[in-house]
Design goal:
The structure holds two protein chains of two kinds. Chain A is 39% helix and 22% strand. Chain A contains 26 helices and 31 strands. In chain A, a hairpin with a 5-residue loop joins strand 18 (558-563) and strand 19 (569-574). By secondary structure, chain B is mainly alpha-helical. Chain B has helices at residues 6-15, 23-50, 58-67, 104-108, 154-157, 162-206, 213-217, 234-264, 267-279, 283-294, 298-315, 320-335, 345-357, 370-387, 392-407, 413-425, 428-450, 457-486, 505-522, 534-546, 552-562, 567-581, 588-600, 641-647, 650-660, 673-678, 687-698, 709-716; strands at residues 85-87, 95-97, 120-127. Classes of the chains: A alpha+beta, B mainly alpha. At the A-B interface, helix 11, helix 13, strand 5, strand 6 and helix 19 of A face helix 2, helix 3, strand 3 and helix 6 of B.
Chain lengths: 778, 717
C-alpha cells in the first residue's frame, strides 16, 4: 500500500472517529510534508505503527457498513440496562443522543431501511421500558422519521442543528469511567460508537467530593426539566399529549393513556353499609313522617334528617304521603353527603375472576364500619405502637389483622411468628401483678432492660407461635382478608402460605428465582401478588403453585407490591425509580409513573377510593400520584420529609383523609389528604408551613379551617377523575405544604417504624423493633 | 475514580501466592474487580433495605454473594467486633484484616453463649387523638453522639449516591429533635437534671441489684436509661452552688499561696505549705461540713455532690488540699445518718480509690501525699464496713482491686503503698487472707528498691511501702495472737519480752526506715534495738553494781562488745542464749539481762531471745535505777555474718519456736515461709509458724509489733 493510500485511509479513520482536531492537524501535516521517495525512514515509520492499530484500520475499512450502527447501538443499550443501578439513570441519558446520531449516520450512508429499523426498535424499547415517550423525545423521533434520504438530511434544519451541536450529558466520574472502558474494550466493533460519542456528545464529568450524588441530583433535575413539570407537577401534562400532533400512531399509543377503571367494585362493604344506613334512615324518616302526619311531630326530633322532615311537614293533611317521600329522599341525600366513611368515585362491575367476599367477612366489615372512628386532620387518630423487644435487627416485616389483635412478623432468622396480642398482654399483666417492681410502679409496661430481663425469665411466653419453613430471611408477610391465611415471602425465593389458626405451612410457591421482596394479598381474597429481585412481579391464586401472570417490565428489582382496592389492578414499585400499575386481567402495564422520585421507592399505599397512590422513598420523601392522569400531585418538601427510608405508608380507612408514614428515623408522621373530594382552594389557604410544622402548629393550622371537610358535600358525589382534575388546576406551591400538609410528627422511643396500618376502625397500628442504639443510619 | 488500584490488585495477588502478575494484568483486573465489588455492594444494600435496616452487615454481603452464585465468605458472621485493618507494609493504600490463629479446642470447648432473649411484643400508646402522652414508653432514649466518621470511609457511602449524604445527616437531626422534646418537658430543672439523670436513673433501674450498676450499664447492650426527672428546688440549687463555691474558694487561697511559693522555691516546701494550709478550715467550711453531717436535706443534693466528688478528684489530682476537702465531704456525708449513700456508692468509690492509689498526687512527688492515701484508705474501709451488709460484693471487689494494684509490677510504688494501706484498713482478716500470702514474693521484688545504693525518692518510697507492709502484717498478727491468747491457746513465750508499749502505726514507717538505713550502711542485717524493758534494765544495773563492775557476766559483756565479730564472742553469745533460754539454769535471768544490753547496742544473734515461760513477771523485779548506760557506740553495730547464716535457716528457728509451742507436728517445720503465710488466714494456722515466717520475710522489726506478755497475762486473767 502506498503512503498516500495510508494517508487517505487514516484520514477517513480519524474522521469516522470524530477526532476533528487530529484531523485538521493531520491534513496540515500531510500538506506540508514533501512527498519523499520511499526510503528506509518511511519504512521504519511503518514499522512503528502498532500491529493492532493496522488491524483496526483494516477492519474499519471492511466493516464500514450500515449494520454496524444498529448492532453497536443495541450493544450499548443492553450494556446500559445491565449496568449498576446507581449509574444507570446517568448512562441512560446517553442513549437518546447516541441513537439520534446513529440514525443520522445511517441516513448519511443511504441505509434508510436500516435506519427505519433502528428507529422502530428504539421506539419499541422506549415504550416498553418507559411506557411512553417524553414530549421532547417524541418530537425528535417525529423529526427523524421525516429524514429518510441524504437529500432531506441536507435540507433539514433539525439535522444540521444536530450536526453542529454537541449534546451535553452529565456523568459522574465512575460512570464516565465505566463508559470509557466499555467503549474501548469493545475493540474495533465499538469504533463507530466511539466516534459518535467523541464528536457529538459533550460528556461533562462532574467532579466533587460526593461522587454520584452531584451527578444523580443533576440528572434528577434534568429529568424534571425534561418532564416539563414544576417540582409539584401541578401543570404537567402526560407525555405527548399537548405536543405537536403525532405523525404516526405509535407515538400516540401511550401506556398512561390506557383506559383504566379506578372505581371501587359494586357492592363493596362501604357501599353495603351506606345502603343499609340509607335504608334504615329512610325507614326512620318514613315512620317519623308517618308519625308527624299522625300529628306527633315532636317524636322525630332525635334525628336531624327526621327533624328537617318534620319541619317541612308542618301541614299535617292529606299531602302527608307525598311529603314523607320527599323527606325520605332528603334524608337519604343528607345521609349520603354527611356520611364520613363514604367513598367517592364510580363503581365498576364485579369482575368474574374475583371471588365475592365471604359472608362473615362482610358482616364483620359492616360492624367495623359502624364503629369506625372518623379521623381527619382536625380529629387525628390514636396510634398503638407494638414494640418488638429483643428483636435486635432481625425484624423485617410485619402485618396486622383487621383490629390488631393478631400480628404476623417476619424475621431474618427465617421464621415467621404469630403473636396473639390478648394472650400476650394478659401474660404481661400477670407477670407484673406477681412481681411488682419499682419500674412498674412508675407506670405500666416499660420497655427497658429490667422489664425485658423479667420477661425472658419465662421460658415461653404464651400466645406466640413460630412458623418455621423458610430457609432464608423472610422479607414480607401479609394476611388474607378473611384473616385465615398468612403469606410470607423470603430470600430463598419461595412464598409460603400458612394457616393462621394452626400455624402450619399449607403451600409453597416456588416461582421466583431470586429473593422475594414483597407479597400482597388481594383485598377480595383468592389472589395474591409478589415481587422480587428477578425484576418480575407475579400474580398468583392461592390454589395454584404456578403464577398466573408475570408482570415484566421493571428495570430492576420489584420492591413493593400493592393491590388496588378494587382488586383489578396491582401497583408495583421498583428500584429503577418508577412505579407501574398493572391490569390483573391482562397482565399488562397500564400506568407508568416516574419522575420526581429522589431515591428508590421503599413503600407504597393506595388510597381507599383507589384514585391516588402514595410512595415513600429511601430518601424519606413521600410522593403522591393521581392514578387517573398519571401525574404527580404532591411531594413532601425535604424539610418535612423523613430523614431515613420510609418503611411504611397507610391511608386511613373510609375516606382516606389521612396518610400515615413511618420510617427508619423512628417517627410516625401524619399527612392530611385534601385531594379527595375537597376543593383544594380552601385547604391550600389554610395550609401550614409543613417544613417547620410541629404537631401543635399543624393541628392549629388544620383546625383553622375546620369546615373544610364537611363544607363540601356536593363535590363528594361528583367523584372520579373529573373532580380531581378540577383540583389539579389549582397551583400548589411547595411553601404551604400543598394538598398533603403534615399534621403531626411523633417520635417513638427508639424503634424504627417497620409497619403502619390503619385498623378497620381507624386506629393506627404501628410496629417496630426496639434498638437501644437508635437508628442504624451509620 | 476507582478505589481499587492496580497496586492493590498486585498486593492481593501476592497474598494468594500469585507472584507473576504483570503490571498490565493488574491494570486490567483492577477496574473489573471494582465493578464486581460495586455489584455486590449494590445487592447487599438491597438486602439491607429489605431487612428494614439502614446499616450494611456482613450477612448482607454474604447474601449478595450467594445471589450471584459466589461462595459466601465464612468467619465474618456473628462477631460484632469490627474487623481491624492493618496496613500492608510497603503499600500505602493496601489494608488487610489480621487473621488471628484460633485453636479449634478453644471454640469447641467454649461454653455455649447465653440464649438470646425471647422476642416478644409490648404494646403502648404512641399517641392518642394526635397527642403524644409523655410516658416512659415514648421518652426518647439518650444516646451518645455518633462517633465522627473517618473521611476515608465516606468514599463507600458514595456508592449509594445521594442517599449516603442524606443519611449521614439523619442521626444529627434526630438527636436534635429529641433534645428539643426533652427541653420542652423539663423546663429549667432539666438543665440540672440532665447532669444527674445518669445517677438517678441507675438508682431507679439498678435498684437493689448491685452498687456498680453504673459500671455495667455500658456493657449491657439493651439497657435503657430512663431520663428520670429530678426536680431541685431553687433553694437547693442555690445551696448547692454555695457549697461548691465555698469548698472551692477555701481550697483556692491555699492553692494561691502554694503557687506563690512555687515561683521562687522548690516544689516541696510549697506543697508542704499548701498541705498545711489545707488542714486549717475556715469557719464557713467547717459550718458546711457540719451541715453535711447533720442536715437531712443533703439527700436531695446527693447526686450533685457525688458528681462534685467525681469531678473534683478528676480535676484536682495535683492539688492536695482539694483532695483532702473531697475526703472530708465524703466523710461528712457518711456520718450523716439521714443520707443514703447506697445508690451513689458506685460513683464515690472510684474517686476514693483514686485518692488512695493514684500514681501521683499533689504538686510534686516529694510532698506529703501519704497522709491523703492513709485517710482515703480509712474512708474506703469505712464505706466498705458500712455498706458491706447490703452489698456483700463491695468489699470483695474493692479488695480485689487493691490487690491487683499491689501485684501489678508496672504500677509505681506510690500506688503500691496505697494498696497496702487500703488492704490494711479493710481489716486484719483481709490482710491475713490477701496480703500475707503475697508478702514474700512482693518483698523479693521490693528488695532492690530498698537496698538501692543511692538514697533517692524511690528508695524512700520503697521504705514507705515496707513500713506500711510491716504495719499491716504486724497488726494483723498482733490481732491474731491476742485473739488466740484470749482463748488461752497461746504460749506466752512467743511474745517479745520487755515490750512496754505498742508503737503508734504512723510512726512505724519512720522507725523502720531508720532501721533500714542502718541496714544499708552495714550491708547486712542486724539485731534491732530491743524495746526497753525496765525489768531487765534493773537486773542489769543490779549485776553491774553487784561485783563492782567486774563480775564475770560484765566481763563477758565487755569482751563481746569489744569485738562482736570474733569467734569467742560468738560462742559466748550462744552460750548466753542457751542459759537465757533455759529457765532451769540459775544464771538465766542474768543472761537475759546481758543479752538485752547487748541487743541494745545492736550486738547479738539476730534470733529473738527466748523468754522462758511463766518466769517473766512484771511485778517480780522492782523497777529501780534509771537507764544509766549510754546508747551504745556506733561501732557496736556490726553483726557477724555467721550468726546470720546460722540462725536464718528456717528449720532451726522454726523448731526453736515450735519447741516452746504445744509440740505440734514436726513435719510442718520444713515448710517455707511463703507456704506458711499463704495459709495464715486459716483459723487453725499455727501462730508460731506465722510469726516465724513473718520474721523471715519482713525481718526482725516485725517482732516489735507483737503484743507483750503483760497484756496477755492480763487477758488471761
Amino acid at each position: 500500500m502506498r503512503d498516500a493510500d495510508w494517508d487517505q485511509l487514516f484520514l477517513q479513520f480519524i474522521r469516522k472517529r470524530g477526532l476533528r482536531d487530529v484531523e485538521t492537524a493531520f491534513t496540515r501535516y500531510v500538506r506540508t510534508q514533501p512527498q519523499e521517495p520511499e526510503d528506509g525512514m518511511s519504512v521504519s515509520q511503518h514499522a512503528e505503527v502498532p500491529q493492532n492499530f493496522i488491524e483496526e484500520l483494516a477492519t474499519f475499512a471492511v466493516e464500514n457498513d450500515a449494520s454496524v450502527y444498529t448492532d453497536t447501538y443495541e450493544c450499548l443499550a443492553t450494556w446500559v440496562d445491565n449496568s449498576l443501578d446507581v449509574y444507570r439513570p446517568e448512562l441512560r441519558k446517553l442513549l437518546h443522543p447516541v441513537f439520534v446520531r446513529c440514525y443520522l449516520q445511517l441516513v448519511e450512508q443511504d441505509a434508510a431501511a436500516t435506519a427505519a429499523t433502528l428507529l422502530s426498535r428504539y421506539r419499541a424499547r422506549l415504550l416498553n421500558s418507559q411506557g411512553g415517550l417524553r414530549r421532547s423525545v417524541a418530537t425528535d423521533l417525529q423529526q427523524l422519521a421525516a429524514i429518510t434520504s441524504r437529500h432531506s438530511l441536507r435540507s433539514s434544519p433539525f439535522a444540521t442543528s444536530l450536526a453542529t451541536s454537541k449534546a451535553p450529558v452529565a456523568l459522574s466520574p465512575f460512570a464516565h469511567e465505566l463508559l470509557m472502558r466499555f467503549l474501548h474494550n469493545g475493540g474495533s466493533r465499538m469504533l463507530p460508537l466511539l466516534a459518535i460519542v467523541n464528536s457529538y456528545i459533550d460528556l461533562q464529568v462532574l467532579e466533587g467530593a460526593a461522587r454520584g450524588t452531584a451527578a444523580a441530583a443533576a440528572a434528577a433535575a434534568e429529568e424534571e426539566l425534561e418532564d416539563g413539570e414544576g417540582p409539584w407537577g401541578a401543570e404537567g401534562e402526560p407525555v405527548g399529549d399537548t405536543g405537536p400532533a403525532p405523525a404516526d400512531a405509535a407515538t400516540a399509543v401511550l401506556v398512561n393513556r390506557t383506559e383504566i377503571k379506578l372505581g371501587l367494585l359494586q357492592g363493596n362493604i362501604d357501599d353495603l353499609y351506606r345502603d343499609q344506613q340509607e335504608k334504615q334512615r329512610a325507614e326512620e324518616a318514613v315512620t317519623a313522617a308517618a308519625a308527624a302526619a299522625a300529628g306527633d311531630g315532636a317524636g322525630a326530633a332525635g334525628q336531624p334528617a327526621g327533624a328537617t322532615a318534620a319541619d317541612s311537614l308542618e301541614p299535617p293533611t292529606k299531602k302527608a304521603k307525598k311529603a314523607a317521600e320527599k323527606a325520605a329522599a332528603a334524608a337519604a341525600a343528607a345521609a349520603a353527603a354527611s356520611r364520613p366513611g363514604q367513598v367517592r368515585g364510580e363503581r365498576i362491575e364485579h369482575p368474574t375472576f374475583l371471588p365475592r367476599l365471604p359472608e362473615e367477612v362482610v358482616a364483620v366489615g359492616l360492624r367495623d364500619i359502624a364503629a369506625r372512628a372518623s379521623v381527619s386532620a382536625s380529629s387525628p387518630p390514636s396510634c398503638a405502637f407494638f414494640t418488638f423487644v429483643n428483636a435486635k435487627q432481625t425484624l423485617t416485616a410485619c402485618a396486622f389483622n383487621r383490629d390488631g389483635s393478631k400480628i404476623v412478623a417476619g424475621f431474618t432468622d427465617s421464621s415467621v411468628r404469630l403473636y396473639d396480642m390478648p394472650t400476650i398482654s394478659a401474660h404481661h399483666a400477670q407477670l407484673r401483678r406477681y412481681r411488682p417492681r419499682p419500674v412498674v410502679a412508675n407506670g405500666g409496661a416499660v420497655v427497658d432492660g429490667a422489664a425485658v430481663a423479667t420477661v425472658d425469665d419465662e421460658a415461653e411466653t404464651p400466645g406466640i407461635s413460630i412458623l418455621y419453613g423458610h430457609v432464608a430471611a423472610v422479607h414480607a408477610v401479609d394476611m388474607t382478608v378473611d384473616q385465615r391465611l398468612v403469606l410470607s415471602g423470603s430470600s430463598d425465593g419461595t412464598i409460603r402460605v400458612w394457616g393462621a389458626e394452626f400455624g402450619s405451612c399449607l403451600a409453597v410457591y416456588p416461582g421466583h428465582v431470586f429473593p422475594v421482596w414483597d407479597v400482597a394479598c388481594c383485598p377480595m381474597g383468592h389472589w395474591f401478588a409478589s415481587g422480587g429481585a428477578d425484576r418480575v412481579a407475579r400474580l398468583w391464586v392461592t390454589e395454584r403453585t404456578a403464577p398466573l401472570r408475570l408482570l415484566v417490565g421493571h428495570g430492576t428489582d420489584v420492591d413493593v407490591v400493592r393491590w388496588h382496592p378494587n382488586g383489578t389492578l396491582v401497583a408495583t414499585a421498583s428500584a429503577d425509580r418508577t412505579l407501574r400499575l398493572w391490569d390483573v386481567r391482562e397482565g399488562k402495564c397500564v400506568r407508568y409513573l416516574s419522575g420526581g422520585l429522589y431515591g428508590s421507592p421503599t413503600s407504597m399505599a393506595l388510597s381507599p377510593d383507589g384514585l391516588h397512590l402514595a410512595a415513600g422513598t429511601d430518601e424519606g420523601q413521600v410522593v403522591v400520584w393521581d392514578l387517573g392522569t398519571a401525574r404527580r400531585r404532591a411531594a413532601s418538601p425535604p424539610a418535612a420529609s423523613h430523614s431515613g427510608p420510609v418503611w411504611s405508608l397507610s391511608y386511613s380507612q373510609g375516606d382516606g383523609t389521612l396518610l400515615a408514614s413511618g420510617g427508619a428515623d423512628e417517627t410516625v408522621r401524619l399527612w392530611r389528604n385534601d385531594l379527595g373530594g375537597v376543593a383544594p382552594g380552601i385547604s391550600s389557604g389554610g395550609g401550614v408551613d409543613a417544613g417547620s410544622a410541629s404537631p401543635l402548629q399543624a393541628k392549629s393550622g388544620a383546625a383553622g379551617g375546620p369546615g373544610v371537610r364537611p363544607a363540601s358535600p356536593a363535590e363528594g358525589g361528583k367523584g372520579g377523575a373529573l373532580g380531581v382534575d378540577g383540583a389539579g388546576r389549582v397551583p400548589c406551591t411547595p411553601g404551604n405544604g400543598g394538598p398533603y400538609g403534615q399534621v403531626g410528627r411523633y417520635r417513638t422511643k427508639s424503634s424504627p417504624v417497620v409497619t403502619l396500618q390503619f385498623s378497620s376502625r381507624n386506629l393506627l397500628l404501628a410496629a417496630g423493633p426496639f434498638h437501644r442504639r437508635g437508628p442504624i443510619t451509620g | 475514580m476507582s478505589f481499587i488500584t492496580p497496586a492493590a490488585v498486585k498486593a492481593i495477588a501476592l497474598s494468594v501466592d500469585v507472584t507473576r502478575l504483570t503490571e498490565d494484568a493488574a491494570k486490567a483486573l483492577a477496574p473489573d474487580v471494582e465493578y464486581r465489588l460495586r455489584e455486590i455492594i449494590q445487592d447487599a444494600l438491597k438486602f439491607a433495605r429489605h431487612c428494614k435496616r439502614t446499616k450494611l452487615t456482613t450477612q448482607d454481603i454474604n447474601n449478595a454473594m450467594r445471589l450471584r452464585n459466589l461462595e459466601p465468605l465464612h468467619g465474618f458472621l456473628g462477631n460484632n467486633d469490627p474487623a481491624k485493618f492493618v496496613r500492608a507494609t510497603g503499600h500505602p493504600d493496601v489494608y488487610f484484616v489480621r487473621d488471628a490463629m484460633v485453636p479449634l479446642e478453644q471454640i469447641t470447648y467454649a461454653p455455649l453463649p447465653k440464649a438470646p432473649n425471647h422476642t416478644t411484643v409490648m404494646p403502648h400508646w404512641l399517641f392518642i387523638d394526635g397527642v403524644q402522652p409523655q410516658t416512659e414508653e415514648n421518652a426518647a432514649v439518650e444516646r451518645p453522639p455518633p462517633p465522627a466518621k473517618r473521611p476515608r470511609l465516606t468514599a463507600a457511602g458514595a456508592m449509594r449516591g445521594p442517599s449516603g449524604a442524606a443519611q449521614c445527616s439523619a442521626p444529627a437531626g434526630g438527636t436534635l429533635g429529641q433534645q428539643d422534646g426533652a427541653g420542652g418537658r423539663g423546663r429549667r430543672a432539666a438543665a440540672v437534671a440532665t447532669a444527674a439523670a445518669t445517677p438517678g436513673t441507675t438508682a431507679e433501674v439498678g435498684g437493689p441489684a448491685s452498687p456498680d450498676a453504673g459500671g455495667t450499664t455500658g456493657s449491657v447492650s439493651e439497657r435503657v436509661q430512663l431520663p428520670v426527672q429530678h426536680i431541685l428546688s431553687d433553694e437547693m440549687q442555690r445551696l448547692l452552688e454555695q457549697i461548691k463555691q465555698i469548698l472551692a474558694t477555701a481550697a483556692g487561697p491555699a492553692a494561691g499561696g502554694g503557687e506563690g511559693a512555687l515561683w521562687g522555691d522548690l516544689g516541696e516546701p510549697a506543697g508542704a505549705s499548701a498541705a498545711a494550709a489545707s488542714l486549717v478550715l475556715t469557719p464557713m467550711q467547717r459550718a458546711i461540713l457540719v451541715t453535711m453531717q447533720t442536715d437531712p436535706g443533703m439527700q436531695q443534693l446527693l447526686p450533685y455532690l457525688a458528681k462534685y466528688v467525681c469531678d473534683d478528684v478528676a480535676a484536682g489530682l495535683r492539688h492536695l488540699p482539694r483532695l483532702h476537702m473531697v475526703l472530708r465531704v465524703v466523710q461528712a456525708l457518711l456520718l450523716n445518718a439521714s443520707v443514703h449513700l447506697e445508690p451513689y456508692l458506685h460513683q464515690l468509690m472510684p474517686p476514693l480509690l483514686t485518692c488512695c492509689m493514684a500514681k501521683a498526687l499533689g504538686p510534686s512527688p516529694t510532698c506529703d501525699h501519704w497522709r491523703l492515701r492513709d485517710s482515703a484508705a480509712a474512708l474506703v474501709a469505712q464505706l466498705c464496713g458500712r455498706f458491706g451488709e447490703p452489698f456483700y460484693s463491695l468489699k470483695v471487689k474493692v479488695s480485689k482491686q487493691l490487690l491487683r494494684a499491689l501485684l501489678d509490677g508496672s504500677k509505681p510504688l506510690t500506688s503500691h503503698y496505697g494498696a497496702v494501706v487500703g488492704l490494711a484498713a479493710l481489716g486484719h482478716a483481709t490482710v491475713r487472707l490477701l496480703l500475707l500470702p503475697q508478702l514474700e514474693p512482693y518483698l523479693a521484688k521490693l528488695q532492690p528498691a530498698l537496698e538501692a545504693r543511692k538514697e533517692g525518692l524511690r528508695q524512700y518510697e520503697a521504705t514507705r511501702v515496707y513500713g506500711a507492709l510491716l504495719t499491716a502484717a504486724g497488726a494483723a498478727t498482733y490481732d491474731k495472737l491476742v485473739g488466740a491468747a484470749a482463748d488461752g491457746l497461746l504460749p506466752v513465750h512467743l511474745f517479745r519480752a520487755g515490750r512496754t508499749h505498742l508503737n503508734v502505726p504512723a510512726l512505724a514507717g519512720s522507725s523502720t526506715s531508720q532501721a533500714q538505713t542502718q541496714q544499708q550502711q552495714q550491708s547486712s542485717t542486724t539485731v534491732p534495738p530491743p524495746h526497753p524493758n525496765p525489768e531487765l534494765e534493773a537486773l542489769w544495773e543490779q549485776l553491774r553494781s553487784q561485783n563492782g563492775g567486774a563480775g564475770p557476766l560484765v566481763q563477758v559483756f565487755n569482751v563481746i562488745v569489744a569485738d562482736p565479730a570474733a569467734p569467742t564472742a560468738r560462742s559466748q553469745l550462744e552460750q548466753l542464749r542457751g542459759s537465757a533460754a533455759d529457765p532451769s539454769q540459775p544464771s538465766h535471768k542474768a543472761a537475759q539481762a546481758l543479752l538485752y544490753q547487748l541487743a541494745k547496742r545492736g550486738v547479738g544473734l539476730p534470733t529473738p531471745p527466748q523468754v522462758p515461760q511463766g518466769k517473766v513477771n512484771g511485778a517480780a523485779v522492782p523497777a529501780s535505777g534509771s537507764r544509766s548506760q549510754s546508747s551504745g557506740g556506733g561501732g557496736a553495730n556490726a553483726t557477724n555474718s555467721n550468726a546470720k547464716a546460722g540462725t536464718r535457716t528456717p528449720t532451726g528457728t522454726a523448731m526453736t519456736l515450735k519447741a516452746g509451742n504445744s509440740g505440734g507436728g514436726s513435719g510442718c517445720g520444713t515448710r517455707s515461709a511463703r507456704a506458711i503465710l499463704a495459709e495464715s488466714w486459716r483459723e487453725d494456722a499455727d501462730p508460731g509458724e506465722v510469726v516465724w515466717a513473718l520474721t523471715e520475710v519482713l525481718g526482725p522489726p516485725v517482732l516489735a509489733w507483737l503484743p507483750q506478755p503483760p497484756v496477755l497475762a492480763a487477758m488471761n486473767i
